[in-house]
Amino acid sequence: MNALTGDAESPHIVRQWRYARRSRLLNSLDWTRYHLWVYFVDSCEPSYARSRLCRFFFEKVCQGHSTASLLYCAAGGLETTQKEEMDLELPASVPDLHSDDLQNLVVPPYTFTPMDFSMYDVVVAADEATAEAVRKRLRETGQSDRDELCVLSDFMDAYDVLLEAEQENPVLEPAPGIAQGILSQDGLAHLMPGQPLRGTPPPRPVGPPLPGLPSAWQELWSVANSGIDELTDTGSAQPAEEVGRILHAIVGLERCLRASIPQNMRWWNDEV
Fold it and tell me: What does the alpha-carbon distance between residue 138 and residue 136 come to, in Å, rounded to a whole number?
């Protein structure tokens, strides 16, 4: 789980390395509850602004991509929050924020403990230093490294990788009216009357990266796009670029988790 160094940091090697790290996480997921909980953890700021921003972006991306009923999240820090007020440097780089967005961002994060691994399906460290601090906490309690632990930058290129794979094997749009196990009036015509909705969630195209999100966020996406194959961790760039990299990684994380739904998973209201 250590970072690449030296001549190994070519775009091709970096992509392979990130893919291996993502695979380790995705192979550990348990979808038997029909949803996943994601926990963003930060270590370097007294107000843990990055984990708050991850929570904010993840919720927005899930709402825009219609996965909010499948994917939930929380934010945490390695120590008790030292500053209740949000560090405004990162949020100030996010355009088109409204009052409810700011209310989301100022919600204080939780305090991480190793026991949280029993509550969350995915623990996302804001950077490598945070991930190593989490592993140290695990070792102190007699636990080994966890497959559920990943680093935000592992997902920097995930959206692009999924999109490239889909271009080779296109995914058809699902039938109208059927989404996340909920039957709508439009979908009624596609089902037998009186029969429960069964089967696996229909395949969904990767789609555009920012559906349902403010158009001004495209600038954030573009700012970070040029450095997508670089191994720079979040936290080592200018605020606008760092926010763009976080957004890139969050979009990739959401798409990867949605794509990890097992083929044999039944809907929540499958009676058989």
Answer: 5
pLDDT in tens, the chain (272 residues): 455 554 555 788 999 999 999 999 999 999 988 899 999 999 877 778 899 999 999 999 999 999 999 999 999 999 876 555 556 677 888 999 999 998 898 888 899 999 999 999 999 999 999 999 999 999 999 999 999 999 999 999 999 999 999 988 886 655 554 444 555 555 554 555 555 455 666 778 999 999 999 999 999 999 888 778 776 665 556 888 899 999 999 999 999 999 999 877 776 555 44
- Full domain range(s) for residue 134: 6-163+205-259
For tokens 């001004």, name the residue. 216
Determine, yes or no, domain membership for 51: yes
- Domain of 109, CATH number, reads 3.40.50.2300
Give the 3-state secondary structure of residue 95: coil
Q: b/e map of 201-238 (b: 16 or more CB within 10 Å)?
A: beebebbebbeebbeebeebbebbeeebbbbebbbebe
| Burial of residue 186 (number of CB atoms within 10 Å: 0-12, 13-18, 19+) | exposed
Q: Considering its fold, how many domains does the chain have in total? A: 1
Structural domain contains residue 173: no
The answer as to whether 103 is a domain residue is yes
Whole-angstrom Cα distance, residue 9 to residue 184? 49
Residue 14 resides in a domain: yes
Note the pTM of the prediction, 2 decimals: 0.84
CB atoms within 10 A of CB 185: 7
